[in-house]
Amino acid sequence: xxxxxxxxxxxxxxxxxxxxxxxxxxxxxxxxxxxxxxxxxxxxxxxxxxxxxxxxxxxxxxxxxxxxxxxxxxxxxxxxxxxxxxxxxxxxxxxxxxxxxxxxxxxxxxxxxxxxxxxxxxxxxxxxxxxxxxxxxxxxxxxxxxxxx
Length: 149
Fold this sequence. Notes:
Layout: E1 5-11, H1 18-22, E2 28-34, E3 38-39, H2 40-53, H3 57-75, E4 79-80, E5 85-91, E6 95-100, E7 103-104, H4 112-123, H5 130-137
Antiparallel strand pairs: 1-2, 2-5, 3-4, 5-6, 6-7
Helix pairs in contact: 2-3, 2-4
């Protein structure tokens, strides 16, 4: 497996579990920096698949309008080069703000559940990468997947 990006989680207070992230309405940020050239549409597609892998079918259906808005944001970009970034901010009172190359892309997505679903890609029950999840949460990595979450 090759690395596509580096990711970091920023919160107002330290958290060690995904449930702590979804429990409050504080500002949150997930910052991704590309390590190689990435097709922006493919990255958007990976985000959508990651969201769907971390929620049940009914929740996925409820989130579909927000997921389609997110996909539309990435349709505006052809590619992201190494060193370029995608930032996913939760701004209380505004919603999810997606920035590409440091510039907000499109309108904010107001549903808090969408940001939580988006964060679930890296921090949820089925994260994209367990080691990355543990690093983002600042917890000791473990090889025992039965004791996760």
